[in-house]
Design brief:
The protein is of the alpha+beta class. The protein has 32 helices and 23 strands. The radius of gyration is 31 Å and the shape is globular.
């Protein structure tokens, strides 16, 4: 095959030969767009030159480097570049390049551009990682420019980028594009989607005088426009420094928008396009996919209108990626607007391995929107701020006129069923409500377990599928929904009464020291276990071992350990279904891998016996004292003799309900544990039959797909057509999971991929991060940034900084002096537990885990919602926390190794 070929030839359409930039230019030629003529030097020529010079072993050593070891990366990259710049091309290749430049391009000045085979891809653009050489005017300079482009495959940035994304350098290759130079009067970039917000409805254009190199290198401040693609309306125009007239006319802007639309339609994705204007004509110099946009929620709305989605992860205080299996279960669980074909919820969407809920029907109605926003303020102020901005958008009014009211009717029916139950909850004795509530939850779990155990084979999966679909009717509607409504009202009332009748107290004084919260009971039980282990040296040694699971298992039956193991077995029976990220059925529970609670027990060994119970009792006494002060204040003034007892009675009632807020989620987790066990067993069957590589690949499937696969396996003969595609499907989804691991999901996302921006932040001192105050008090301490609760401990007094904190995180709170989270609100899990433990907490601090680092000393102000860096301190000497993949690792579910069955 030829090593030199024109950009409009079929060879230029092959990534392995022309590289990413060459393929992009070939596509522009195919679309008959204005592109400067040129040719491509095949990537195979580069590989042949490397092999001929014996450089592949040197390159292979680069693949063994750690991307975080900057010195090693720079040294290896420099050695490879030096060797490539010194190599000689074959005489035949040199002659072909000279001939093509002279005969094909008439010896005109050219631009020489790198075109790597791992460049300009759908999920890795490598933008700016390799070289472009402009204004090449003679043969010697042309050959030198080709070598420079080859060597730039091993720039420090490009090598680090590949290492970070798991792309092997020894297999990477480099084509080179040579194009006739456009002597630009104006040049710039066109994004066919807004890269700052992600909106596919808006394009952005930037322009500078002369060549575009000044723009992409950051040496010139461009003119910039944001334009609505559908109408051509200019939404924003900014002129560069010192400029009074725009560089582009209105006609040129519209021409660029039209060209961008053709490129995007032809390539099937939003594009990053470089362009130039010379002698009044617009040229396209390259085009590549924009790889940094937010994903678009799926399935798309069936009305074709603009929709607003709120992040399920921010509501649940868990923004980590979810497995496909976990997402499919939640879509079954939520009952609103079910799809008549699949039965899945029409309001729950998937984007970037996260879940979003369609809030458009509610937001399109002003009164409902105001109440919804108030509820979100308690759950996630970050979300509430963005929802207020979304409500101001004209697109939302258009959606309301287009029929969102019809969808509201369905939602209001469900809300009405909840509201009708509230008076009964309000009027009954709180103890009676509590007893009925807890008894009903226990009976439900027992009935579900019995239903599954009556079945065999694939019918067991059918049973758990029915249980999940009924869960809302059986748990959320009769029990949790009215209680949740009371909690939302109750939290506001308790704060209001404290402000009105005892302003000397912290606003959250009546929200502390709640009795009966199951998550608090779980944490206190861990403290009890530490008390039992502390006097037994063998247990202390086992708990502090590098592998506490194996070490502790070896001590079962040893002298003096029986009380501890009896309590430990009871703990796993009661709480083994819990764990970090537990809303996703595809992540391990403590019953599968109990390392996290064992580490918490080990960390509590240094505490005084009973100190954890004493702390809880103190919080309860303080709450009782606060209630007495509030009642005294309420007795003052006219009708105080009526108001005082009423406030006291209602406050006690509301505190009882607030303490129950975690029970319904615990019950849902018990049901999901039943689903998890049956689904994993099905995965073992599929793995044994060779359909899956391993059993925990089952989490890359959806529930409907798993049921279909098991039925296909049971048929005689087995349906091989259904089974054959599963491995490839699992591999594809695993790559998607890895791709979205890095994405930070926005609290509010639209149907065109736009992340709604928040309102401007409040004024705060320099060096202060602003969030939402959810637990009062001010503490100064040393930061500990934690990304994974299952693999982390806290030293006493450290400030816990976390991306989120669901119930699986709360054992870490036992040693924390304060809590800082990137998401959350006043009534989310971490906030409630922080108040009960009496530690200050600030949540909804955007980017806290990136802006703060372990070892810094900070002041956490839980009254104002401020986190102030006092000094950068020194690293604590402890290994930094690294974000861990949510996808379950092989072996975590092997209960013969570490699970509940191993303890019995």
């Amino acid at each position: 095959m030829n090593d030199i070929f024109p950009l409009d030839s079929p060879d230029a359409g092959q990534l392995s030969r022309a590289g990413g930039k060459g393929v992009g230019l070939h596509a522009l030629f195919a679309l008959q767009l204005p592109v400067p003529p040129g040719f491509c030097i095949a990537a195979g020529a580069f590989r042949a030159a490397l092999e001929g010079a014996g450089l592949l072993p040197l390159i292979a050593r680069a693949d063994e480097l750690d991307p975080g070891d900057g010195d090693a990366v720079r040294a290896q990259a420099a050695a490879i570049r030096e060797a490539i710049l010194a190599l000689r091309m074959s005489p035949g290749l040199e002659g072909e390049i000279r001939a093509q430049w002279r005969d094909g391009l008439g010896g005109a000045p050219v631009a020489v551009r790198s075109s790597a085979t791992a460049e300009d891809l759908e999920d890795a653009s490598f933008a700016g990682q390799q070289d472009t050489v402009l204004g090449v005017r003679d043969e010697a300079a042309l050959l030198d420019a080709v070598r420079r482009c080859w060597a730039s495959l091993f720039s420090d940035r490009a090598l680090t980028y590949r290492l970070d994304r798991g792309i092997r350098s020894v297999t990477a290759s480099m084509g080179v594009v040579v194009q006739r130079m456009v002597e630009a009067e104006r040049a710039g970039v066109l994004f066919t989607a807004d890269p700052s917000t992600g909106s596919r409805a808006v394009c952005t254009i930037e322009a500078v005088e002369g060549l575009g190199e000044a723009l992409v290198s950051g040496h010139a401040l461009p003119d910039a426009w944001r334009i609505r693609k559908a109408t051509g309306e200019v939404l924003e125009e900014k002129l560069g420094a010192g400029r009074t007239q725009p560089l582009l006319t209105s006609a040129q802007l519209q021409e660029l928008v039209a060209l961008g639309a053709r490129v995007e339609a032809g390539r099937g994705a939003p594009q990053d396009i470089e362009w130039a204007v010379a002698e009044g004509r617009c040229w396209l110099l390259q085009a590549r996919a924009i790889t940094t946009l937010n994903p678009i929620p799926s399935p798309a709305p069936d009305d074709g209108r603009w929709h607003v989605y709120v992040s399920f992860g921010h509501i649940q205080v868990n923004t980590a990626p979810l497995t496909p299996f976990g997402i499919s279960l939640v879509r079954q669980l939520v009952p609103f607007l079910r799809d008549p074909g699949t039965g899945d919820s029409g309001v729950v969407k998937e984007a970037g391995a996260r879940m979003y809920v369609d809030a458009t029907p509610v937001l399109a109605a002003p009164k409902l929107a105001a109440r919804f926003n108030a509820a979100m303020q308690s759950m996630s102020p970050q979300m509430a701020s963005r929802i207020r901005r979304a409500r101001e958008r004209p697109e939302l009014a258009e959606a309301a006129r287009a029929g969102a009211a019809v969808r509201r009717i369905d939602l209001l029916r469900g809300v009405g069923r909840i509201v009708r139950r509230i008076p009964g909850v309000l009027l009954r004795s709180p103890e009676r409500v509590r007893r009925r509530y807890l008894a009903g939850l226990d009976a439900m779990v027992a009935a579900a377990t019995a239903e599954v155990n009556r079945e065999t084979g694939s019918a067991r999966l059918d049973a758990v599928d029915r249980i999940v679909r009924r869960a809302f009717e059986q748990i959320l509607l009769p029990f949790a929904a009215p209680l949740t409504a009371m909690m939302l009202v109750g939290e506001r009332l308790l704060r209001r009464w404290t402000r009105a009748y005892a302003p000397q107290l912290p606003e959250d004084a009546l929200l502390r020291g709640l009795e009966g919260n199951i998550v608090t009971e779980m944490d206190l039980t861990l403290g009890d276990l530490a008390d039992l282990a502390r006097p037994v040296p063998a247990l202390r040694d086992a708990l502090t071992a590098a592998d506490p699971v194996a070490a502790l298992k070896a001590q079962r039956g040893a002298e003096g350990t029986e009380p501890f193991f009896a309590a430990w077995d009871d703990f796993l029976t009661r709480f083994g279904h819990r764990g970090a990220g537990e809303i996703d059925v595809g992540v391990p529970r403590w019953g599968d891998d109990p390392t996290a609670p064992l580490k918490t027990i080990a960390a509590l060994l240094g505490n005084a016996p009973g100190s954890h119970r004493a702390q809880q009792q103190l919080a309860h006494r303080q709450a009782e004292d606060a209630l007495a002060q509030v009642m005294t204040g309420a007795r003052r003034g006219p009708l105080g003799f009526v108001r005082g007892p009423f406030v006291a009675k209602m406050a006690r009632r509301l505190r009882t309900y607030l303490a129950l807020r975690e029970h319904h989620k615990s019950t849902v987790m018990e049901l999901l544990e039943l689903v998890r066990e049956e689904s994993y067993a099905a995965g073992e069957r599929l793995a044994a039959a060779g359909v899956l590589a391993r059993a925990d690949d089952v989490w890359m499937l959806r529930m409907a797909e798993l049921r279909e696969a098991v039925r296909a396996l049971e048929q005689k003969p087995a349906r091989t057509d259904t089974l054959a595609r599963l491995r490839a499907l699992v591999e594809t989804r695993a790559r998607e999971q890895a791709r979205w691991q890095r994405w930070s999901p926005p609290p509010v996302l639209t149907s065109d991929g736009e992340a709604i921006a928040p309102a401007p932040e409040a004024e705060a001192p320099a060096g202060t991060l602003v969030g939402t105050a959810v637990s009062s008090g001010v503490v100064e301490g040393v930061v500990r940034v934690v990304q994974d609760a299952a693999r982390s401990t806290l030293a006493p007094g450290e400030v816990l900084v976390a991306p989120f904190a669901d119930p699986g995180w709360t054992p870490l709170f036992m040693h924390a002096s304060a809590l800082v989270m990137e998401v959350g609100g006043t009534m989310t899990h971490g906030s409630v537990i922080a108040r009960e433990l009496g530690i200050p907490a600030v949540v909804a601090v955007d980017g806290a885990t990136q802006k703060l680092r372990s070892g810094q000393r900070v002041r956490v102000d839980g009254d104002r919602g401020w986190v102030t860096v006092l000094d950068n301190g020194a690293e604590t000497g402890r290994a930094p926390e690294a974000a861990q993949p949510t996808r379950q690792k092989s072996g975590w579910t092997n209960r013969d190794q570490c699970g509940r069955d191993a303890w019995k």
